[in-house]
Protein 1
Amino acid sequence: MIMIFLSQNHERNHRRRYLAVFALLAVLALTTIALAQDKPYPAAASVLQPQAYVSLQPVPRGHAFEIALVAKISPGFHINAHEPSEEYLIPTKITADLPLGVALVETTYPRGVMRAFRFSKTPLRVYEGSFTVKMKLRAEAGAPLGPKKIGLTVGYQACNQDACLPPTKIPATAELEIASVDTPAQPANPNIFSATPAVKFPAQR
């Protein structure tokens, strides 16, 4: 009888410890959920993740080439199109810091899609999910040879259904190599450069 009582008592103590651990885990889980719900909006610069690609590698002197900036937008957010549907909206814009001997010909932006949002009485033209901007450039005849970096700056404003984050600018970099004029031009990243967005903008002098 004593052995049975001790065994039952041990089982009850084990069950109490198990319930205590389970209760502690439940409290921690609820606390994690509450903290997640109270978490502030992300930093504006973290909403967009850009990556730059070059259409030729290397780029011979005297040849035209393209840079494609592929940008992914965090789920739940959108950014205004380059040509927004309302004048008060801040457009998405990409600028390039070009090395000596490289000239910008034109920039091609996607048109965007019209979406309805709770904060606007009318649908707005935006980018969502991901989008690609293409820049047509030319390596001049006297462009310095060797590896080059083209610094890109993406300016945008990100919003969700409830609020807009502050306008921001983030960097991206395209890397290429300028080669002599008789070097064969080798296509690069064909999957990126197969499709062409609809709206082209001449280079601004």
Protein 2
Amino acid sequence: MSESPYKSGTTHFGFKDVAAKDKQKLVGEVFSSVAGNYDLMNDLMSLGIHRVWKRYFVATAQVKPGDRVLDLAGGTGDIAALLKERVGSTGEVVLGDINAGMLSVGRDRMTNRGLVAGLDYVQCNAEALPFPDASFDLVTIAFGLRNVTDKDAGLREMYRVLKVGGQARVLEFSEVTVDWFKPVYDFHSFRILPKLGKLFAQDADSYQYLAESIRKHPPQEALKTMMGEAGFERCSYKNLSAGIVAVHTGYKV
């Protein structure tokens, strides 16, 4: 069997081409840098609307009391906290993130909010999850898939750990669908965002990368196709805010 191009070739890190084996380390450096300002970062990138997107993402998910849920790239715990409300005292939410700094910030913030029972934290790579087959009723990843080097492997792993009848959901920055808004969005992303990152977080480069990573992420139809190729059925997506973000959904049947 030939070696995966993700292992032997090059991939993108923002608009730069880098060795695929190096991307995980480079992305890790970005998120280690911004971990303490992650919520601020999302506010700057979305003008605060990310909080509404996340609530919609969870409110429309297939989840009920007693379910076991995996939230990948769980970051500072925004999605996990919302999911915990849905699964209740009898359910469990596993917050997974490849970055130890992000995971630590997330655990501290959840504990400070009094959210302890029914929550687990696992440092893990989305491309090789440390869970048995058919372990979860729902798997989510919000604003994290675009940072996964081998997205196809990540989607296959999400499929593998889902129970039959389970749902996978992806919330991610996507391709703007309104032509007149595209130059406005680009101006905010490439001219304003790095300056705000430098001003508020003393880190322009990480914010520049994050803006670039959005443009390199597969657009809506391409990601829908990728989910189907990973094994998911009934794949669909819904654009929010003129396609600034999209919610992709697939099922294991």
Protein 3
Amino acid sequence: MAQHPKNVELMLLESELLLFDGSFDEAESLLLEIEQLSPYHEEVFLQRASIFSKKKNHPLAIELLEKALDLTDDEVEVWNLIGMEYLFLEDYFKAKSFFLKCVEENPYDYQSLYNLLYCYEQLEEDIEAIVTLNNILETNPYSEIAWHQLGKLYVNIEKFEEALSAFEFAIISDDSFTGAYIEKGKLLEKMGRINEAIDNYEISLQLNDPSAYVNHRIGKSHLKLGNDDLAVQFFKKSIKLEPNHEKSWISLVDFFLKKKEYLKAQLCGNQY
């Protein structure tokens, strides 16, 4: 800075360092000075918006981001930032519109997609979410994320066959996608196809680190089939992986109570 006073790019780097250090007032003063030197520099408005976002002044952050939007070559990045500010304000309707722009521009922008689906969830707009996901799949038919999320939405509206197909397409798109096997297993369990559910849970265990949740689900499935000893084994595996796994402890207590093995039920209750 001593060699190149009033160099805008160096001043912006300095303001960025001040932001990292949490010196918001100093950063804001420097950015206002930069704005006088370069009133059409996108980065000035982005950094100022970041300051006011951190100060929880989200309306002013949005106002600054809208100015940046008029100057930027990367509209998607700014749309995403505006969407996040509306999320902080819990204005899900406006947030939705910006995340939708991001996804329409780039169907592979999965972070914006997750945020968009969260907005739909808060607004209870399952059908609109399904339409959006189907539109994404027309452009990107092997998006395992879109198929997976579509399946979960079909489960919500009790279209189980459509949900099952969606989970199967997620697996076809990525046969190592653990989440799709788990959701498919949960759905098959709900549909009474218990053995198939167990098969999918076990595949998910082979693909990923051992999971207390999945072992618990396998235990519940074996209970439904009357395989009591196997059920207990899987509940115990779940607890070994996660000693505070409440549902597995409760399942063991309930199991022993039904068997009138009260001492074992009490021991499980005391250990939990």
Protein 4
Amino acid sequence: MKTGFIGIGNMGGAILRGYASSSQGEKDRIMICDPNRERSEAVLKEFPRISMTEDILDLVRASEAIVLGVKPQAIDDVLEVMAKAYLPEKLVISMAAGISIAHIRKFLGRDAKIVRIMPNTPALIGEGMIAVCPGDGLSLADLTGVDAILKPTGKTEEVPESMIDCVIGVSGSSPAYTFMYIEAMVKAAAANGMPMSMARTFAAQAVMGAAKLVMESPKSLEQLRIDVCSPGGTTIEAVKVLQKNGFEEDVRQAFQAAVDRSKEMTRQKGE
């Protein structure tokens, strides 16, 4: 498909670069539109066959699939312009938090082909987790096209749109919680005499390895934790402190705060 990207910031740019670097992404069939000219020129330097426009209508007319990497507060203005050239056979992929498929259809029409997605920042290195929420009326070819655009940036999983707020809490926002955990470990290690650069490597590799073990092991999360905690050893003492200080409850509350904010953003749009 001829694919247009409106907004190529962190997430839009990550998906663009993943797609353009893959065997699926034919560079001369990709167009970008972003108000930040410096950002656009950096992409063109990296992928010279990609085309650029400063006119959203040009991109909409030329594209079969349109990826919206636009922030929620700006999306209505973009959709209002898009509506002047949009046709129902064009596929629209939106990653704006709090912006429902129904809201987008208010601008583009009831027959608009919409896919709502929720990626996360590890997509920047091809390790993202992307929820895919297809709207009504999409064909198998449409979904195959979406998969081709998204797969180069990480794992994809189809979920109902009703689950998107939960996705934001458990995946979309959760890299930030993980970075906080790693930062706390690095600071603690540095306080015990380890150089911070070394501590960062040790802490990050431990988290990455633990995550991979979760993905590949058939054991429950509880059993994986128990396996590390030898009676009378070091790990069980650390776990006791985390449990005493309410670590799991803090994580649960952080997750819920993200979910609640996502729901609030949707309500503010009148959905």
